Amino acid sequence: MTESLNNLLKATGLWRASRIDCEFKRHPSSGFAELDAELPGSGWPADGVTELLHDQYGIGEFRLLTPSLARLSQVQARWLLLVSPPYIPYPPALAQAGVDLSRIVISQPKSPRDYLWVLENALASKSCSTVIAWPRRILDKQIRRLQVASRTGNTWCILFRPEAAGINASPAELRLRLRPGQPRHDNSALEVRVLKRIGGWESGDIRLTFADQLHRPMPDFSEMVVRQVEAVPLESMTVPDTVPVDGRTYEYQ
């Protein structure tokens, strides 16, 4: 009886506050077992707003998403929309991770009003599986609108925001803080903490290790010694009286 009831609750997607495994619509896996264990439904949500908070680009924040983006680009005939990315993800790395590059669309709205219009309409259009954005400033009421649009279009909305945004509450259902792995010159790991999730409290720090082709330690420049060259006064420099050009000799005036 208990097993039948649990199966029925899971099949209908009924949320139980005492269980973290409560999300009905979801992606199968984030690609990281340690992270799946802390996410509702053992994977990224299929829709709704997810916030990824970090203060430094290039720490692996996009590599965190590539397993799921690869699967979405392969099994769904919908777009992966990037709205005003601060940098263009490296196409060979995405292709190597299995992302279908023909499914990626990049939008560069010219004004804040256009920016929010693009986000909301793309989320509700049902033409995108995922919409990823890097808003400089966004209000709670705007995030709520994105949440509603995301539900309407069954589209996953990902917002990259600064870590300071975590101080304040947010309507987003899932919030993660991202920090570079230690030591800092090693780009093979990422430190993740779940700040907000349905059915659970804040998690501890989770160390995720990347095993892709970008798993290469960066050089440690902390011990590098740079030889300083003493500046030479202009008065001590000697300039020749003449200079040869094309077989002829010219005098400096």
CATH topology: Rossmann fold
Query: Structural class, please?
Result: alpha/beta
Strand order of the largest sheet: 3-2-4-5-1-6-7-8
Rg from Cα: 25 Å
Helix content: 10-25%
Poorly predicted runs of 5 or more residues: 8-24, 215-222, 224-229
β-strand percent reads: 15-25%
Q: Find the CATH superfamily.
A: P-loop containing nucleotide triphosphate hydrolases
**CATH class category label:** Alpha Beta
Characterize the biggest β-sheet: 8 strands, mixed
Average of per-residue pLDDT values: 81
Order of SSEs? HHEHEHEHEHEEEEEE
Number of helices: 6
Question: What would the principal axes of the Cα set say about the shape?
Answer: globular
Number of extended strands: 10
| Number of structural units classed as domains | 1
**What separation lies between the terminal Cα atoms?**
103 Å
Structure description:
This protein is of the alpha/beta class and 253 residues long. The protein has one domain: 3-Layer(aba) Sandwich (Rossmann fold), CATH 3.40.50. It contains 6 helices and 10 strands. An 8-stranded mixed sheet has the order 3-2-4-5-1-6-7-8. Helix 5 (112-124) packs parallel to helix 6. The N and C termini lie far apart (103 Å). 28% of the residues are buried.
Keywords:
21% strand; 6 helices; 23% helix; two-stranded antiparallel sheet; 8-stranded mixed β-sheet
Summarize the topology:
Elements: H1 2-12, H2 33-36, E1 48-53, H3 66-75, E2 79-83, H4 91-96, E3 104-107, H5 112-124, E4 128-133, H6 140-153, E5 156-161, E6 174-180, E7 189-196, E8 206-209, E9 242-245, E10 248-251
Parallel strand pairs: 1-5, 1-6, 2-3, 2-4, 4-5
Antiparallel strand pairs: 6-7, 7-8, 9-10
Helix pairs in contact: 5-6
